[in-house]
């Protein structure tokens, strides 16, 4: 059935150079695609996998499927996770899967990575069409614009000033500070209907905001500030 759907499929697969001092995630990817479809409905499948050749490492994934920027489904598992989501088709819809990959050895978390993929479904085009690089860039630009509009809305409602801030993902937070990553993971857990949480880091590298909009429309902004070498929640 995939030959009837326009699908931009970009794997978030990255090969990493292993650090000999500790275990590391060696491969990680996530993707979303159209599993099946009719002119009445269609099924989205999203999948993530994390790999490492260290037998002592426990590898896990936590994936969230977004319709636009709204949480519609999720899945998690050890080593791999997959799920499906069904929705009646209508106007052009963009789905995005985002996956946090994390690794622990014993009780210590030793690595974290992030991957994503996007698929656009357009019911007016029932032929398989591979998007050009320019079209894929337009899809990504549209999604980023949606997130930027949401961030502006949350900032206006909560009274925060995002001047000098730029969005980052949770994998980048782990590189900044593993302890901060743990706190942000807890603060960015979502449920169906919530909008995608956003992390905005200041250009100084000493302040960041967690922006949230919940399913009931409530907006929140939580700030962390780097003080004396430690990130403190304000």
TrEMBL record:
UniProt entry keywords in alphabetical sequence: Signal
Signal sequence coordinates: 1-23
Protein name according to UniProt: Uncharacterized protein
């Amino acid at each position: 059935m995939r030959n009837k759907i326009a699908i931009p499929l970009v794997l978030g697969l990255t090969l990493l150079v292993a650090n000999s001092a500790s275990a590391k995630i060696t491969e990680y990817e996530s993707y979303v695609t159209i599993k099946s479809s009719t002119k009445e409905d269609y099924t989205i499948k999203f999948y993530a996998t994390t790999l490492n050749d260290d037998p002592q490492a426990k590898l896990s994934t936590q994936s969230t499927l977004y319709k636009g920027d709204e949480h519609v489904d999720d899945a998690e598992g050890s080593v791999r996770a997959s799920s499906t989501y069904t929705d009646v088709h209508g106007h052009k819809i963009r789905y995005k899967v985002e996956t946090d990959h994390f690794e622990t050895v014993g009780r210590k978390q030793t690595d974290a990575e992030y991957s994503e993929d996007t698929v656009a479904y357009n019911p007016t085009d029932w032929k398989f069409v591979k998007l050009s690089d320019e079209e894929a860039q337009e899809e990504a630009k549209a999604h980023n614009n949606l997130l930027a509009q949401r961030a502006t809305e949350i900032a206006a409602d909560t009274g925060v000033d995002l001047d000098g801030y730029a969005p980052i993902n949770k994998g980048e937070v782990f590189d900044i500070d593993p302890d901060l990553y743990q706190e942000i993971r807890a603060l960015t857990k979502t449920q169906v209907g919530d909008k995608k949480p956003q992390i905005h880091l200041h250009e100084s590298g000493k302040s960041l905001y967690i922006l949230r909009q919940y399913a009931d429309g409530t907006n929140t902004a939580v700030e962390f500030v780097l003080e004396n070498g430690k990130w403190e929640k304000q």
